[in-house]
Design brief:
Pfam families: Lactamase_B_2 (PF12706). With 269 residues, the chain is α/β, with parallel strands linked by helices. The chain is built from seven helices and 15 strands. β7 and β8 form a beta hairpin. It is globular.
């Protein structure tokens, strides 16, 4: 890419099932099915910069997402948040693409996540180098720190804090009920990307796994990022409605790009 500031593109903004859900005929799924604004692939972002590009998560919609942005699997670095299928389901296809192109992909994640991926896809490390990042990592000029976060009923996930040239942002797609220690890396942020599967989730708390938008607003009031973008949304979120968000909060949409520098642009494509 041209320019001095790295750029983030939302390739997928949906929850584990995506939108539309194949079995569902709710208004949101029907609108999404017709190609509307609520159509959401599984959550993933692409970060592009002068020093190189990388993906955050590689879910089952990876192939569709690569076709969408006209990239022929030339992205050889992937960072993974956790080993749930909606975040790793595309890894076998990515590994096969690396094999065909005679490239060696690099997969970065904490060791326990890599171990879980190896059990699910025992062959892919023939074509992908597994690199543990428990102690942090440097990639394309970014200083990157993972930390473990509560994923509610679904166990755990990892969030990532990225820092470069006095710009700090966090990707936290799957979390709920963070404790004080887990909230510390959320302070002093230029940008927080946070998973919010519902506007208001009515299910019993012990059965849940991701913040809703009301709970997210309370978290934002506490950690005070300059800007926040919600992602990882289910079919219970209708982007046609007024979601009553704070001025510093917006909703991720497929193809939306964000400058990761002097944070001044939220550009929908």
């Amino acid at each position: 890419m041209n320019g001095r500031v790295d750029r983030l593109t939302f390739l997928g903004t949906g929850d584990a099932m995506g939108v539309p859900r194949v079995y569902c005929e709710c208004e949101v799924c029907e609108e999404a099915r017709s190609g509307g604004m609520n159509r959401r692939l599984r959550s993933s972002v692409l970060v592009e910069g002068i020093e190189g590009d990388f993906l955050l998560d590689c879910g089952p919609d990876w192939r569709t997402q690569m076709e969408m942005i006209n990239r022929r699997a030339d992205i050889t670095d992937v960072i993974v948040t956790h080993a749930h299928f909606d975040h790793i389901g595309g890894l076998p296809e990515w590994a096969d693409a690396c094999r065909w192109q005679q490239l060696k992909g690099r997969l970065f994640a904490p060791q326990e996540v890599l171990d879980a991926i190896s059990k699910q896809f025992p062959w892919i490390n023939s074509y992908i180098e597994f690199i543990a990042n428990d102690q942090g990592m440097e990639l394309n000029g970014w200083s990157i720190t993972p930390w473990k976060v509560h994923h509610g009923h679904n166990g755990y996930s990892y969030a990532y804090r990225f820092e470069k040239n006095d710009f700090a942002w966090v990707y936290c797609s799957d979390a709920i009920g963070l404790d004080e220690e887990q909230k510390k890396p959320l302070h002093m942020l230029d940008l927080l990307i946070l998973g919010t599967s519902f506007v208001r989730e009515e299910a019993e708390y012990h059965t849940r796994s991701v913040y809703d938008m009301y709970e997210a607003a309370e978290l934002i009031d506490e950690v005070v990022p300059s800007e926040t973008i919600y992602t990882h949304m289910s079919h219970h979120v209708d982007l046609r409605e007024d979601l009553n968000l704070a001025a510093s909060v917006s909703i991720a949409r497929t193809g939306m790009t964000v400058d990761l520098g002097n944070y001044s642009s939220l550009l929908s494509e």
